[in-house]
Amino acid sequence: MRLKTWYDAGLVAVVALVTGCGGETLEPLPSKFQAVVTGAIHTCGLVTDGTAYCWGKNDFGQVGDGSRRSHVYPTPVVGSIRFQRLSAGAGHTCGISTAGSAYCWGFNFNGQLGDGTLTDRSTPVLVDGGKSWITLSAGGSYTCGIAVDSLAYCWGWNASGQLGDGTNTDRLEPTPVAGGLKFRSVHANARHTCALTVGGQAYCWGSNQFGQLGTGNTDASNTPMLVSGTLTWIALDAGFSHSCGVASDGSGYCWGRNHFGQLGAGDAIGGGGQTQPVPMTGAVAWASLDLGAYFSCGIQAQSASAYCWGYNGSGQLGVDLPGSTCTDESGIPSQCSRAPVTVTGGLSFATVSAHTQHTCGLSIDGTAYCWGLGSDGQLGDGRKGRQIFTIEPVRVAGQP
Fold it and tell me: What is the enclosing helix (H) or strand (E) of 361?
């Protein structure tokens, strides 16, 4: 099954049969991590000198080591490029070099690598266009970024208008998002994109089946649409079919699909979609939010504790919740939480990154931890297999 089709079908049953670890040798990392990001079934991180490492599923070359072999330990990305930012998507990875150039590698079925081809790459390739970039976001089968002029560009799959260029045409290289808005962050996921302007306004575009654009209706748009309300935003992110943001006072709001409680609104709303921002439950001031498939995570501003909520079928919330269930459209019950719950372990985090069925975080002392599904080595602790799950953060192997 091609990844685009898999991403469309839903993100619960993604585990393939896998073998043992294959005797992979652990090579110690040269320094601490400065960033860690999750993809669908792989993970990447930057150590302090800007060297990129990836681990987990590598069937399309998304680990970037020149092979198609999955890895259970951090593996250096090929080449001498030093990176300042990384973003991991469904089957591809992108990064910004210290010189400001964008590189991508992995799956390229829809042109999401931005090199003008449809060729998968197992090592980094330069994104076309010669632009300097300040941020990138690798989505399901597409990528978006913001150049130094604060304009947003997207490339790759565009069936739902998620590139925001006013069409539904796939693009093989960076294409300007319509409207000429000045953005400071952009967030790509499966079929919709959200971005935060330099003035603190939230815009979203693409699929809107469950209200994930936040416009008060379910009409899709292939150009940016202003999120409803008068709030000023300081942070924003897009999940598979929901979106969340942090308002200027630190309070959290979410909108879109809510069948597993991924909006974090508790029992105040049902499991249906919400077409405009609704407040998250609890008097928590958020430093940041990061959204996965059918779940969400965030860092509490004062304590630096990590919280997650929504679907917990693989332990990706970082806590066991026996007896707490939600049912999907098929009536199948699964463990979930409709309100934020503290990640087990008492760690203080600088960042957290959520994706399909696993989550990783970087502690304030620069140590990377992961939890949830470890089917293909994406936890980075030396294990893989379809029965590998952990609800407590495990330390990524090889760190000093």
Answer: strand 358-363
* HSE of 96, CA atoms in CB hemisphere, 13 A: 21
What span, in angstroms and rounded, lies between the C-alpha atoms of 70 and 100? 29
DSSP element (H, E) containing 6? helix 3-9
- pTM for this model (two decimals): 0.94
What are the φ/ψ torsions at residue 3 (nearest 5 degrees)? -60, -35
Number of neighbouring beta carbons within 10 Å of residue 199: 11
Cα angle value 171/125/293 (rounded, 5°): 60
Do 143 and 94 form a contact (C-beta atoms < 8 A)? yes
Is 213 in contact with 228 (CB distance < 8 Å)?
no
CB 208, CB 241: distance < 8 Å: no
Residue bearing the bigger pLDDT, 11 or 316? 316
**Strand boundaries in 269-355, DSSP class E:** 274-279, 286-291, 295-300, 306-311, 325-327, 333-342, 349-354
Q: Which CATH architecture has domain 3-395?
A: 7 Propeller (2.130)
Strand partners of residue 335: 325
pLDDT in tens, 25-46: 999 999 999 999 999 999 999 9
At residue 123, the 3 state secondary structure works out as strand
Q: Around 295, how many Cα atoms within 13 Å sit in the side-chain half-sphere?
A: 33
* CA dist., res. 202 & res. 213, Å (int): 10
Structure tokens belonging to residue 344: 């087990």
Q: Can you tell me which residue has the tokens 């590698």?
A: 105
What's the pLDDT at 332? 84
Cβ contact 32:399 at 8 Å: yes
Helices and strands counted in the chain (H then E): 1, 29
**Element (DSSP H or E) covering residue 264:** none
